[in-house]
Design a protein that fits this description.
By secondary structure, this protein is an alpha+beta fold. The protein contains nine helices and seven strands. Helix 1 crosses helix 4.
Length: about 220
Amino acid sequence: MQAIEAPKANPENLLDIVRDAYRAKVVVPEFQRAFVWSREDIEEFMASVLQGYFVGTFLLLDTPTHSPMFPFRTVEGLEQVNRLARPEQHATVRLVLDGQQRITSVFYVLYAPDIPLRYARYPYTFFLRLDEALNGNLDEAVVGVSQRDLRHMAEMRELEERQQAIRFEILRDSSRFYRWLYNEQRVWGEEDRPRIRNGLSTLTKVYGPGRLPVFRSRRG
C-alpha cells in the first residue's frame, strides 16, 4: 500500500488554496456535506478575514489522484467557472478535511459561479465597499447582492463607477487589482492606496492569533 503523507495544519496563502480549488487541485472528500453557507455567513466570514481576525485553520491531506484515501469531488461551483479543470490532470490532489465551508466561500466570492446560495433562488455577487472599509466599518463593507435584486445591484454598480466599491472577483488576480489601484482609479490617493493594499493583504494568509495590517479608521 502506498504511503500517504499525514494531514498537516500549517499557515498557507489563502488565495493559493482557492486558486488550487479553481484548478481542481484542492478537492472535497465525498463524506463532507454540501456547501451550506448563506450570504450572511459569507459576509461575516469575509469581514473577519479582512479585519485580520483568527478564522481557524484548514486541514488538507495530499493524496494520489489514481488511488486516493477517500473518494472526492471538486469544490461546488467549479463546473460553472472552469469546466476544463479535472483532478486527474494532477498526480496528487489535496483533500479538504477541515475548512470546506470557508474555502468554498472564498471561492464563491472570487469566482462568482452561477449557482444560488442557501436560502436563495439566485446567485449572488459580492462587493467590497472601500469607503466603508477605510472608515473601519468592515461589517458594512462586505456586501452580497442577489443578481435578481435589480435595485441593490444598480446601487452597487453606481458605487463601482464612482470607484467607491470593487467586486471581489478582481482580487483573484493581484496584478489586475494593482493595475486598477495604481493606474486606473482616480479616487484613492497616496494616503489611501497603501491602506487598501495592506487591508486586502489579509487574504493572502491563513492566520494564527497574530494580527496583520488591516483596514483602520481614518479617525484612529
